[in-house]
Design brief:
Layout lengths: L8 H16 L3 H7 L4 E10 L5 E12 L5 E8 L4 H17 L5 E8 L7 H15 L8 E5 L5 H15 L20 H19 L8 E5 L3 H12 L3 E9 L4 E6 L6 H5 L10 H6 L3 E4 L10 E4 L20 E3 L8 H9 L3 E3 L1 H4 L2 H15 L5 H26 L3 H19 L4
Parallel strand pairs: 3-4, 3-5, 6-7, 6-10, 10-11, 11-12
Antiparallel strand pairs: 1-2, 2-4, 7-8, 8-9
Helix pairs in contact: 1-3, 1-14, 3-14, 4-5, 6-7, 6-12, 6-13, 12-13, 13-14
């Protein structure tokens, strides 16, 4: 991840906030409070590796704001993680919870590590060490973690077990994304990806389009991307290109099919982190192309569902004239300069903290279920998710049309206003 100001996600998040603060005419005190995190934890996690040596991993937990409720946000394991990316993500989580109307604040966590190069035992050591360092500062009443990039339900269960061992009780509401049967919610695995498509469906309806009449290119092939593709195809859409990370070559590549990808076929040659086996894909008839080429596909819809800063001033011109929608499955995939250019071209951009809020919405459902020890059927979870995402999109779209705003600005206005009002009502500013 670039450390340069132009692509620094935290600088980008603050710039986005500053624009909306001006629109809302927020006072200086509330601007100062919301422009940066309320609390940050930088931790060192010593882990004895399989070779007997001790390696110290750097970790983070950033709590941006909890005016609306306990903080909520994932924990990502990534070799290029930075404090600034975690700060930005924590801020975006605050707006994400606010825009869909769930009573939670924003946080984010991470560890600088590469799970590809760590054994299961070493990863368990990182998980338990992260909790040991932060056990007094997280919990069901103050900050509830969840999975993120390269973490999953197994990591969450290790963390829950460590938290419960430290505090001497059972606290399933401490963390979400747990395995079903251990306090996890049905529907959680597909929630983020499905939420993207629920919102996309509504956006297409407003333009008089049906999903069945569109095709898309997707960046990423992890859990979010796979489930977005799954529901998109169930609704009749067609995906022609997906990109992923080649761990061996340490670079991205994409697979393209002239008609449509076969999701279930690709899943059989994909590792648990979303890495597709390039050789097997080629043998199955897919064209291998550079990872950045997904952006140039001749499709109606682009779904960036991987990392930050993927559509930039340097890459936006490569987008096909055919593209009419960009729906941000990833956090912060579009830089402000590129966002302006997309607007000039008439491309509808559905912002990340609305589009991918299905995950945190279902995490909230899991948190509620864990705390009351009563669990809902799969169809109930997905039905409530659909309703929440649909209502959130309609509120954002209505405001955008009534005030002549972009969807991103309208979503920000709703979210920032809700958080600012909560801060004022609590007497903080």
């Amino acid at each position: 991840m670039s450390s340069g100001t132009a692509l620094n996600p935290y600088v980008m998040a603050q710039q986005q906030f500053d624009r909306i603060a001006d629109l809302l005419e927020l006072g200086q005190a509330v601007r100062a409070l919301l422009r940066q995190p309320m609390r940050e934890h930088h931790i060192s996690i010593p882990v004895r590796m399989d070779n007997g040596e001790v390696h110290v991993f750097r970790g983070f937990r950033v709590q941006h704001n909890d005016a609306l409720g306990p903080c909520k946000g994932g924990i990502r394991f990534h070799p290029e993680e930075t404090a600034d990316s975690i700060r930005a993500l924590s801020m975006w989580m605050t707006w994400k919870c606010a825009v869909v109307g769930i009573p939670l604040g924003g946080a984010k966590g991470g560890v600088i590590c590469d799970p590809y190069r760590l054994s299961a035992r070493e990863q368990e050591g990182i998980c338990r060490g992260w909790v040991r360092q932060l056990a007094k500062d997280v919990g069901p009443q103050c900050d509830v973690p969840a999975p993120d990039i390269m973490t999953d339900s197994v990591h969450m269960l290790w963390m829950l077990d460590e938290f419960e061992a430290i505090h001497g009780g059972r606290y399933p509401g401490f963390i979400t994304g747990k395995p079903v049967g251990m306090g996890g919610s049905l529907g959680r695995t597909e929630a983020t990806g499905y939420g993207i498509i629920y919102v996309l469906r509504e956006a297409l309806k407003e333009k008089g389009l049906a999903i069945a009449d569109t095709c898309a290119a997707v960046q990423g092939f992890g859990n979010v991307a796979q489930h977005a593709i799954e529901l998109y195809e169930k609704m009749g859409g067609r995906v022609t290109t997906v990109s992923c990370w080649d761990q061996t070559a340490c670079s991205a590549f994409a697979v393209r099919h002239k008609d449509r990808i076969d999701l279930e076929q690709l899943r059989t040659i994909t590792d648990r982190f979303g890495g597709i086996d390039a050789q097997q894909a080629q043998e199955l008839g897919y064209e291998l192309i550079p990872g950045s080429e997904w952006l140039s596909d001749d499709v109606d819809i682009l779904i960036p569902a991987a990392m930050e800063n993927q559509i930039t001033a340097a890459t936006v011109d490569r987008i096909s004239p055919r593209v009419r929608f960009v729906i941000e499955g990833a956090n912060g995939p579009t830089t402000p300069d590129a966002d302006k250019e997309l607007g000039k071209r008439g491309i509808v951009t559905i912002p990340d903290f609305l589009a991918n809020a299905g995950g945190v919405t279902c995490s909230y459902f899991e948190q509620v279920q864990s705390n009351i020890n009563f669990f809902w059927p799969h169809e109930v979870v997905l039905g409530r998710l659909d309703t929440t995402m649909t209502n959130a999109f309609r509120s954002v779209s209505d405001l955008a049309q009534s005030r002549n705003l972009s969807l991103r600005d309208a979503a920000y206005v709703i979210a920032v206003d809700r958080v600012a009002r909560a801060c004022k009502d609590r007497g903080w500013v």
